Structure formats: C-alpha cells, structure tokens
Write a sequence for this structure.
C-alpha cells in the first residue's frame, strides 16, 4: 500500500504536522500497517487538536472502511464498520424512524472516532455519552488479532477503548443501539437568561423535561451581565404534534444545502467586532419561542457551512472545553468567564451544558457543568491564557476534553484524569509494543 | 435502457469503490443485485451493506476472473438462482506492475488474463443469455489507458484496449437483439490505484463516476468517458502523430 506525505491538522487547523498517510481499503490492508508500528488512526479529522496527528510517523485514514453490516429493525441494534459517518447513519435510518442515541455537534465524524472520543450530546443529562449505547466492538489489535470486547467480555479493553483516543486498536466494527423516533422534528424552545444565576436556574428547571438542552452565552458580557444568554431546549416531536399535512411524511432527512469556505483568509475574520455582531444577531435570531424544527438545524447548526474552520484564518483556532464538578461549578464558571473577559481574547462561541452521570477511564464528562469556548487568535499570550484556564479547571477538580485539546500538559492531564494509570495498564496489556500512538499520546504520556 | 425496480443485475468485481457506489445507484432504483468478487469476506460485507442501506436483495458470490473453467457454472447458477438477468456490470481489473511485466511474462499474462480474457469469458456467457432474452445491458469498465499505448503502462493499456474493441464488436452483434453494450472509460478515479500517484484536480470521486455509469445506461450511450472532459483530453492524445508521441514522456 502506498503512503502519501501530507500536512495534516485537526479541525482547529492548529497544530499542522507532516506525516505519511495511508488509506486502506480493507482490514487486510490495515493489517499490513501493524508491524511497522508508530501508527495513528484517523477518521474524518474532526477532533480539534493533535489527536489524529503523528509528526513524521504513519497515519491510517480509515474512512474507506465504511460499510453497514447488520441491523435489527425490532431493537435498533446496528453493526457497522468504524469508518461509517454519523451523517450516513442518519441518512439511512432517520427515514425508518431511528435516530442516534447520542450525537455531537457535527454529523461529519466517524463512528469509530466518536467512540474513541466517547462523544456526548445535548442529551448527556439523560443519555450519558455514546459508550453507554455501545454494546460491543470488534477490535483489530496491534498483534494482528481481532477480538470482540463488551462490558462482559474483555471489559478492560472495552473501557480503555471508549474514550481511549484510538490508542488501543482499530475499531473494525461497532454494535450500538439507535433510538426510536416518530418524527424527524424537534419540539424546540428557547428561553433567555439575564445572568449566570438565572442561566443555571433555567437549565436546572428545564433539564428534567426536555431530551436535549444547551445554553449559549454572550462571551463579551461581563460585570452584572456575566453569563447572560439563551437556553435552547428540544425533544423529539411525537407524530401527533406535527401539522396534519406533514404527518404523511414525518421522517424527512433534513440535511441542508452546504455553503463552503473555499480557502482561509490571510487573517481571522472572527474578531472582537464580528463577535459582537455575531452575539447580537444570535440574540436576535434566538428569541424566546416554541416551534417545531428539523433535526439538522437543531443538532448541527454549523454543518451547513462547509469548512467553517477556515474563517479563523491561516493561524487556526482552538476550542477550550472543560467540565467541573457540580459543587465547584458556579464559582469556577464565574472565574473562567471573567478570566476570558479580562484577557481581551474574545471567545466567538461560548456553550454551556449540564452533564449527568458518566462511566469510563478517559471519558470526558462528569456530573457538573461543561463550558466550551472557541478562540480565534493563536499567539503566545493566548497560549498563556489557555494554560491559566487549564490550571483553573484542574484546581476545581475538573478536566478538559481531549478531543478538543492541543495544549494540555502531562502533569495537568494526570491530575484531571485520575484513572489514567488503569488506562495505561490496559494499553500495556493490549498494545505492549506501543504500535498505536499520536502526537497527543506522546504529549500526554499515553504512548511512546 | 430504463433502470428500475424488479430488475436484476450481476456485478463482477463488486468490492471496488466504483463498483460499490454503482451498486448503491442501482439499489436506490430498486434493483436486486448479485455481487461477485474475489474475497469472500469483502463481498459478504458489501452485500450486507447494500441490503441494509437500500433494502433490496443483495447476495454475495465469490469468483476468480482467471479461473475460466469456473465461469460457466457461475453464470448458470446466477441465472437459475435469479430466474433471469437484466444485465451485468463488469468492474474487475488488474493494474499490475509495468516494470515487472517488462521482464516477467507471468506478470504480463496475469494482467491480460484478468482484464481481457476474464472479461471475454464472462461477458460471452452473459451475452448469450441476454441475446436469447432479447433485452438487457452489458456494461464493461475499460479505461482511457486503452486509447493509446504509452511506455509507462502499455501492458495494462493494451489489455484494456483489447477489452474496448471486444465490447465494440459485442455491441454491434447484440444491437440486432436489443441488448445494449456500454463501454465505460474512466479517467483518474480516487481509488487505491491512483492514491499517492496522481495528485491532480482531474481525479474524480468514485461516487461521481458511479452516477455517470448508471446515467449512461439510462441514456442509451455506447461509449462514455467519465468524467466527460476525458473525451476531449483523449481526443487530443489520440491526435498526436506517432513520431511526436514516441518522444513525449507520457
């Protein structure tokens, strides 16, 4: 199989590193790559930082292993290869009345990538993360052997793989449960919050009553307005809620037409001024109301614009997503938001969400509040801000999301993910040579 | 020929990306498929995939293009299992190694046996079945490489060129019995064959080529270049006089 020398980056377009990229067509092809080691697994490249990069090493692009292998129309149990994208799952199964049990904010990720990051969605408070819905996985290990793991059989491998950032083996097949839907629409409600306390109260109040909840915060607002924003709620609409004429086709696939950013501008078009405009227009377009909306706009508002990451210019951008335990949440949130407001590094997008219970060794969520912020500028003072934010999060007993991360230090990682030793023991059992690695894995001490 | 629900097609070399996306296009239109390929586990996976995505019957079959003696049984079983065939899509091909083929007859022979003789053997069997039924379509995937011999891949090119001529003759014969024969000549397609070799804007996705193949059948085309601009590129390449062409490093 041929390799191509390519400059790769994650979705944040920072960092950019060169590697030898292979694109296997089958599991047999993948097996050829195992003896060589120094291998990083990559799907659609939607993790933000360096999780799918491997400086001067080998990278396997696994997007061509994308076949559906089994589906049980009674229970919704689906088995597919790891390279199938969530967009394809929706396209095939929404018309039959099934939906993803958990979905991240983009549908352009592979099933294997989603499991490796143990992604969460706006329904984490009642559905936990994706791994909760995964029944089993067929893993191609570094030895060339294929094994089946689940909660019952090889549970150590199962839990090291869910959230394991692709470092335990190749998820050749995954079996997970889809959820039943009557329509592909959501009953949507937007509620305004005037400040942080009001925001947290609103989330507490509505979470038990809605499948999905997330809040948008105006990242430029400080002082008494700190934390003002909009809470977005949604639940799958039952058939009876649709207008009569829509009831005849209640399950359309609602992927919208895509605009695309063809090339990055020389500098970021996302700056304080455009962010102010963005925040104002966001408040304007998300006025308090209730409505029926299609699933695509509700779950994937940014998927409609292809390559929107290029808007941040050639320097790239960074999303900082962290979570803190419930009791420390309010205080940490205030300090974090104030830190950003004071730094003058405006965050273009601030997203808040309350998590529920979570299992796993390296899975990101924990009961508490998670906040995600996108930053356009990438410079030395900005990196100092990120480091200060990491420190604050670590002190609060929280953690940052590896799928978004490009900067975390090994010491802070170990403090944030206390079960890393258990994970490393499993890694040594199943990949003793350390064949699977990545730039992130080396940075965090997860692989040689 | 109109392609629609209830028709049944045999796809030879079904595990290649171009073949799989063509199978999707046919399945979308409600056709039942028999998917044949070399690797049992791969054709099984493709058959399951097509069935799950589109709900049409899709069955796997294994075959070897060079095992000519096994071909009559393959086609007979296919016909007896399905009742009849509405057509065949032939995708299998062997790129081979030109440098090796210049010194090893075995390598050259493998290329020619797969691309030309394997196709002749299988298509003749299907042609006779369709001729008897007086309807159907035969789609043969040849290559732009078959339009002119080049120093860098003339063994592969000549096997595809021979296939193009064979399909041309077959089309003339079968036009008398209402059977359509389509010669498909793809340019660069984004597959393992071109990955890392061609980095040009001319590389087309296998999805795009697959859509073009099915559309060509529906439009009743005889010879089709995919994507369309290869027709003009190859026209220019064919027009270059031999005394000039032999000095060009193509």
């Amino acid at each position: 199989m041929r390799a191509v020398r390519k400059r790769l980056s994650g979705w944040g377009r920072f960092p950019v590193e060169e590697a030898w990229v292979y694109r296997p067509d089958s599991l047999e092809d993948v097996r050829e790559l195992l003896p060589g080691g120094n291998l990083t697994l990559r799907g659609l490249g939607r993790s933000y930082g360096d999780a799918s990069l491997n400086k001067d090493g080998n990278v396997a692009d696994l997007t061509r292993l994308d076949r559906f292998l089994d589906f049980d129309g009674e229970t919704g149990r689906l088995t597919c290869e790891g390279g199938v994208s969530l967009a394809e799952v929706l396209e095939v199964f929404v018309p039959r009345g099934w939906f993803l049990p958990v979905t991240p904010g983009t549908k352009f990720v592979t099933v294997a990538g989603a499991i490796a990051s143990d992604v969460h969605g706006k329904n984490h408070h009642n559905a936990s993360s994706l791994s909760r819905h995964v029944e089993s996985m067929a893993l191609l290990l570094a030895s060339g052997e294929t094994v089946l793991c689940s909660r019952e059989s090889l549970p150590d491998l199962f839990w090291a793989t869910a959230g394991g950032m692709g470092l335990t083996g190749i998820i050749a097949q995954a079996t997970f449960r889809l959820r039943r839907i009557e329509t592909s629409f959501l009953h949507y409600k937007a509620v305004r919050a005037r400040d942080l306390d009001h925001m947290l109260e609103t989330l507490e109040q509505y979470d038990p009553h809605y499948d999905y909840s997330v809040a948008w915060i105006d990242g430029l607002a400080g002082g008494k307005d700190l934390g003002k924003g909009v809470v977005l709620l949604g639940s799958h609409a039952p058939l009876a809620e649709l207008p009569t004429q829509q009831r005849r086709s209640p399950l359309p696939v609602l992927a919208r037409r895509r605009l695309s950013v063809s090339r990055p501008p020389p500098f970021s078009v996302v700056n304080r001024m455009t962010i102010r405009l963005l925040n104002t227009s966001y408040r304007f377009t998300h006025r308090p109301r209730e409505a029926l909306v299609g699933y695509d706009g509700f779950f994937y508002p940014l998927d409609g614009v292809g390559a929107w990451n290029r808007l941040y210019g050639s320097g790239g951008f960074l999303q900082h997503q962290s979570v803190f335990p419930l009791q420390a949440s309010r205080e940490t949130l205030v300090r974090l938001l104030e830190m950003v407001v004071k730094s003058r590094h405006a965050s273009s997008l601030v997203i808040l969400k309350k998590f529920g219970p979570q299992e796993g060794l390296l899975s990101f969520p924990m009961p508490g509040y998670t906040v995600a912020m996108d930053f356009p500028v990438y410079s030395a003072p900005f990196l100092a801000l990120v480091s200060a934010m990491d420190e604050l999060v670590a002190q609060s007993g929280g953690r940052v999301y590896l799928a978004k991360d490009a900067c975390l230090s090994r010491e802070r990682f170990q403090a944030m993910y206390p079960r890393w030793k258990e994970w490393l023991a499993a890694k040594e059992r199943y990949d003793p040579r350390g064949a699977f690695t990545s730039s992130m894995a080396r940075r965090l001490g997860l692989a040689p | 020929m109109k392609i629609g629900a209830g028709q049944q097609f045999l796809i030879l070399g079904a595990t290649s990306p171009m073949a799989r996306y063509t199978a999707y296009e046919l399945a979308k239109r409600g056709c039942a498929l028999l998917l044949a390929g070399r690797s049992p586990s791969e054709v099984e996976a493709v058959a399951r995939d097509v069935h799950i995505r589109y709900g049409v019957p899709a069955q796997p079959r294994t075959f070897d293009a060079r095992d000519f003696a096994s071909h009559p049984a393959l086609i007979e079983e296919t016909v007896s299992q399905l009742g009849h065939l509405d057509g065949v899509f032939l995708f299998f091909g062997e790129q081979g190694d030109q440098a090796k083929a210049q010194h090893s007859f075995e390598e050259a022979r493998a290329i020619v046996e797969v691309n030309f003789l394997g196709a002749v053997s299988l298509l003749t069997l299907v042609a006779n079945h369709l001729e008897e039924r007086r309807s159907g379509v035969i789609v043969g995937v040849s290559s732009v490489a078959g339009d002119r011999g080049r120093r860098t891949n003339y063994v592969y090119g000549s096997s595809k060129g021979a296939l193009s001529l064979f399909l041309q003759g077959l089309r003339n014969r079968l036009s008398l019995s209402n059977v359509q024969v389509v010669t498909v000549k793809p340019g660069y397609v984004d597959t393992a064959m071109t990955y890392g070799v061609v980095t040009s804007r001319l590389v087309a996705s296998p999805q795009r080529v697959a859509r073009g193949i099915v559309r060509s059948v529906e439009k009743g085309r005889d010879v089709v270049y995919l994507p369309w601009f290869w027709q003009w590129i190859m026209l220019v390449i064919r027009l270059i006089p031999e005394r000039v062409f032999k000095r060009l490093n193509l």
